[in-house]
């Protein structure tokens, strides 16, 4: 089965964020962040812990209330607190999120296959044999054996659990996949495998990534553009090659200097 993304016009970004702000009391965690993600593009949001990058991602996906600013997915705003169920489901089909720790994001008491099948049953008309075929396709797409559908998260490795989480997110064929430190908890060799998997998925179907990470070293292997956040603000943005080769902000230079050498070497995107 070939994935088909939801329709958007050619000149409409899949994601547009304008002046996004989040305050917790007197503390401003995210301060007037604006970014734009085009169809088929991969954009990295980079910063150290406390920079506001994860809070930004959670607001974009509707998991965290917005203090001010706007988020649109394919030209449509985030559903409000009183939105109808159908509107919330449509939003979920446009954007999905993969978290850092798949063991906490997956139901530890549920078989992997059952969790993915629930998503397919909720968002698609597939049933019975057709649903099972789609489930097998998703597992194959992320490099899991169909027999692992009967496994619980505790019976899988960290890398396998993250593959299952990616398969579940892909089940609704989203426009945008938000990856929040999705490889940070994995061993270095497994990180490379997951990065290569994500790159291969982009070659197979049109999808955009918002890649949240503290590690600039892995950004060139997946992302064409990057924004750097510090203390809730964007301090630098541009094409990945330009930002890495000629950083303008001292904070970006410090992040580049902290990249381990040597490191793992997944396949670099052309």
List its traits.
4-stranded antiparallel β-sheet, disordered N terminus, 270 residues
Q: Any overview of this molecule?
A:
- Helices cover 34% and strands 23% of the residues.
- With 270 residues, the protein is α/β, with parallel strands linked by helices.
- The protein has a 6-stranded mixed β-sheet, sandwiched between helices. It has a 4-stranded antiparallel β-sheet with strand order 2-1-4-5, covered by helices on one side.
- A hairpin with a 2-residue loop joins strand 9 and strand 10.
Summarize the topology:
Blueprint: E1 15-24, E2 27-37, E3 42-46, H1 53-60, E4 68-73, E5 76-77, H2 85-94, E6 95-98, H3 102-105, H4 112-123, H5 128-141, H6 158-170, E7 176-180, H7 188-204, E8 208-213, E9 225-230, E10 233-239, H8 240-245, H9 250-257
Parallel strand pairs: 3-8, 3-9, 6-7, 7-8
Antiparallel strand pairs: 1-2, 1-4, 4-5, 9-10
Helix pairs in contact: 4-5, 4-6
Content of β-strand: 15-25%
- The helix-strand sequence is EEEHEEHEHHHHEHEEEHH
| Helix-residue proportion | 25-40%
Give the overall form: globular
Spatial gap, N to C terminus:
27 Å
- What is the strand tally? 10
Largest sheet composition = 6 strands, mixed
Low-pLDDT parts are 1-6
**Largest beta sheet: what is the strand line-up?**
6-7-8-3-9-10
């Amino acid at each position: 089965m070939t994935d088909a993304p939801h329709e958007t016009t050619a000149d409409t970004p899949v994601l547009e964020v304008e002046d996004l702000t989040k305050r917790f009391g007197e503390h401003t965690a995210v301060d007037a962040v604006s970014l734009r993600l085009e169809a088929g593009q991969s954009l990295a949001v980079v910063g150290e812990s406390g920079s506001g990058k994860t809070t930004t991602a959670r607001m974009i996906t509707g998991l965290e209330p917005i203090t001010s600013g706007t988020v649109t997915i394919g030209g449509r705003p985030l559903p409000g607190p009183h939105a109808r169920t159908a509107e919330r489901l449509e939003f979920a089909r446009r954007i999905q999120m993969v978290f850092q720790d798949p063991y906490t994001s997956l139901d530890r008491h549920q078989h992997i296959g059952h969790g993915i099948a629930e998503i397919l049953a909720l968002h698609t008309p597939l049933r019975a044999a057709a649903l099972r075929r789609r489930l097998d396709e998703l597992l194959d797409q992320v490099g899991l054996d169909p027999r692992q559908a009967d496994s619980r998260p505790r019976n899988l490795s960290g890398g396998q659990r993250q593959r299952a989480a990616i398969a579940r997110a892909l089940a609704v064929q989203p426009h945008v996949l938000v990856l929040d430190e999705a490889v940070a908890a994995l061993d270095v060799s497994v990180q490379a495998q997951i990065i290569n998997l994500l790159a291969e998925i982009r070659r197979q179907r049109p999808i955009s990534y918002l890649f949240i990470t503290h590690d600039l070293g892995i950004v060139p292997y997946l992302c064409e553009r990057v924004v750097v956040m510090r203390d809730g603000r964007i301090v630098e943005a541009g094409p990945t090659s330009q930002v890495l080769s000629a950083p303008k902000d001292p904070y970006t230079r410090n992040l580049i200097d902290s990249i381990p050498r040597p490191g793992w070497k997944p396949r670099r995107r052309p």
